[in-house]
Structure formats: structure tokens, C-alpha cells
Amino acid sequence: MEVTTPKRSGTRTEVADLYRAEGPRIWRALFASTRDREVANDAVAEAFAQCIRRGDAVREPRAWVWRAAFRIAAGELQRRGALDDLPPDLPVTEPEIDRVMPALASLTARQRTVVVLRYYAGYKPSEIAVILGTSAPTIRVHLMRARRRLAELLEEADET
Fold first, then answer.
1. What is the pLDDT of residues 101-121, one digit of tens each?
2. d(CA 104, CA 99)
């Protein structure tokens, strides 16, 4: 009789599978949030490396990696003093992205992150709260304010 070992959280194989499944989505979410390719690259790589190092200590690798990547990116931007100092130009090709990205860049860093996690990554407010280490009501407030501001900005853009 063959004995199978249950798959452990944080094993290299599981993290590699998670990287293939979530790595590109995390990178795009970070890039949309930070607008900095280097920060997105470094944060994704470091988050997955830390997940491997922590091994079994990580019970929910997917949520842990998302949370770690966004915290690493925020820390790097703070270290650089660039949290709200975004580059003005972002090369995009889709018309909707052309319309939304400048407005998204006008949000605060936290609002931008919450919007990207909710509407791009598809997380619920309670899941975003876990990723960012805050409460669901706080996330809902950020989403409400961000949606209100985006509506204003997009309406202004349509009028010009």
C-alpha cells in the first residue's frame, strides 16, 4: 500500500504552481497600482521568495503572496519617497485603459491599490482587507471614495 504525503503549504512545488497561476496577475496589479515596472518586478520576486523561505508557516500562500507583494511595493515606494509621485506617461494600447489610467493615477496610493485589487484582481473587500492588513469597512470606504473620484475624473475627461 502506497502512502501519500499531503501537500504542504509553502513547498517549492506549490509556490512554483502559485507563481505560474498568480505571478502575472500580481505583477499587473502592482504595475497598475504603482506604475513602476521595477517596483512590480522586485515586489513579486521578493514575495514569492519569502513565501518559499517561510515554508509551512504560510497557511494561505495565495493570499499571503498578494499581501506581501503589495506591502513590499508600498515599502519600496515609501523608501524612494515616491508614493504619490507617479510618472505622467504610461504606454497603453486599449482605448478604455487610455481613458482610465490617468484617472487612476490621480487617486491616492491606497485607493489605487484597493481599486486594482477589487476590479482587476477580483477580490472581495474582505479579501482585500486580509491582503492589506486592514479592515473590510476601511476597504469599503476607500472603494467608495475612489469610485466617486474616478466618476468625477472620467466625467471631466468626457466633457473635454
1. 778 888 888 898 888 888 888
2. 9
